[in-house]
Design goal:
Blueprint (H helix, E strand, L loop, with lengths): L4 H7 L6 E6 L5 H8 L3 E8 L2 H14 L5 E5 L13 E7 L1 H10 L1 H4 L4 E6 L3 H10 L2 E11 L2 E10 L12 H5 L2 H4 L3 H23 L4 H22 L2
Parallel strand pairs: 1-2, 1-4, 2-3, 4-5
Antiparallel strand pairs: 5-7, 6-7
Helix pairs in contact: 4-6, 9-10
Length: 234
């Protein structure tokens, strides 16, 4: 099965032997791929809408994987029983909605060891939630597909209660994992962000925008520079 670049990135973070629930499964392709490749032992594909679930069920039947993949219609984790999965994959939705799903599914989340999260927006809010609820980010990936950058996180339960909090707020927004590994796609993303903010600041100065607005954009420029500086170390 041929997956998109974004889906390949997401499934690459799933641990072997996982019992996984794919929240917001769309066509069910990720679950099918994980079973066919022998990475997941069991998959539950869920979606709040009937259309995606019907498509996923058709694809699972075509693949002959009805015994290993269940398709359930439901909102977030509401159709999951605590303990039946050890991994949650939530992708293709905004960060605030993702945080809401995790918060509402706390009974299921207590029995989960690994989270695979690919927020479409506000990734800083997701990182805040993970840190506040005892998860640490083990891996991060980035890809560029059809001109858009996508980030994916693999988070696991902290082994120590003394998990170190990020030193600066920008580290919630950009993280440090990809910067420390000098990821070239991440570098391009940061340079594009910096250039965009510099253009915004120039326009704000041209129209004599408020000092507060100019300072806010200046802060964002410095944040990209701080992250780029990590990539230059060593």
């Amino acid at each position: 099965m041929q997956l998109s670049e974004r889906l390949r990135m997401n499934v690459s973070l799933v641990p072997e032997g996982a019992r996984i629930a794919d929240i917001g499964c769309d066509h069910g392709y990720a679950s099918i791929w994980l079973i066919q490749e022998g990475i997941a032992e069991k998959a539950i594909a869920t979606d709040v809408n009937r259309g995606p679930i019907e498509r996923a069920m058709d694809h699972v039947r075509q693949a002959g994987l009805e015994r290993q993949i269940e398709c359930r219609q439901g909102n977030g984790t509401e159709k999951l029983v605590p303990g039946e999965v050890d991994t949650l994959m939530i992708a293709g939705m905004g960060g605030p909605l993702m945080v809401h799903i995790l918060s509402e599914g706390r009974d299921v989340l207590q029995q989960v060891r690994t989270l695979i999260l690919q927020p479409q927006s506000d990734i800083g809010a997701v990182r805040h939630y993970l840190w506040e609820h005892g998860f640490t980010i083990r891996q991060e990936k980035i890809c560029l597909e059809d001109g858009k950058y996508y980030f994916a996180l693999q988070a696991v339960r902290c082994e120590s209660e003394e998990e170190e909090k990020p030193e600066a707020e920008w580290q919630f927004r950009y993280g440090t994992y990809l910067a420390q590994r000098r990821d070239p796609v991440f570098r391009n993303y940061l340079e594009k962000e910096k250039k965009t903010y510099e253009g915004i600041l120039e326009n704000l100065q041209f129209v004599s925008a408020s000092r507060e607005d100019q300072e806010e954009i200046g802060r964002k420029i410095r944040e990209t520079e701080a992250c780029l500086a990590i990539m230059k170390k060593g």
